[in-house]
């Protein structure tokens, strides 16, 4: 089942070798004809130049690109300059996030900063640039790990949409019911913004568990136990992961998800494999 709205996320490489590998990966993934590529932004803007360089590389290759923009640790002047620069480069799409807390950044810093929430960033972007940018924000079907309750988290999401977001991309998840419930609950609040499902391919058990612990994603028990049972058998882990994630994508699309956003980790193979499975199932 081919999704109509299909995008792929990269992180900016830190070395010349990494940049070359990413160019090769992009060339392979571009054959799938995604709507756009997005590029992440490090905690406190730590990858700001790398994000910009990667986005401009993507534009030069003839593809649409969306830089991530985070507000924690950024001043209004810094963000104003970045928005002006991106606009001058002809970039029309942004992913606006609160962002991760930089190392050593505490609750008092958060309270005293110029921006505390992604909704404030979205509001600032709209005030500075009007409707120039298509703005995507984050959504958390299984609740943001720092939210006090699902209700509070949903209200924060609604606030980002009210501030001017055009769409949302979810944190990755493996429980389709959590996604459908989140969308249903948001719509009950009058939030009809498209919520694209974030998809993380499964290729490495320990890496997946580490990522999931950090971002609060639940790995269903049956998936965890099955992955653990493979031990160091990477081929079996990848084959099982491909089936699990493809089934998840098919269920999401059949249930009305408006699109899929793949967290590629700069690796072309896993996303390509899932895409081919989806197209074959058409």
The number of E-state strands comes to 8
Structural class: alpha/beta
**What share of the residues does DSSP label as strand, in percent?**
5-15%
Q: Stretches where pLDDT falls below 50 for ≥5 residues?
A: 107-112
Average the pLDDT over all residues and give the rounded result: 91
CA-atom Rg in angstroms: 18 Å
Helix tally equals 11
Distance between the termini: 5 Å
Q: So what's the overall shape?
A: globular
Main β-sheet: number of strands, strand sense, barrel status?
8 strands, parallel, barrel
Written as H for each helix and E for each strand, in order along the chain, the element string is EHEHEHEHHEHEHEHHHEH
**Widest sheet, order of strands:** 1-2-3-4-5-6-7-8
As a percent range, the share of helical residues equals 40-55%
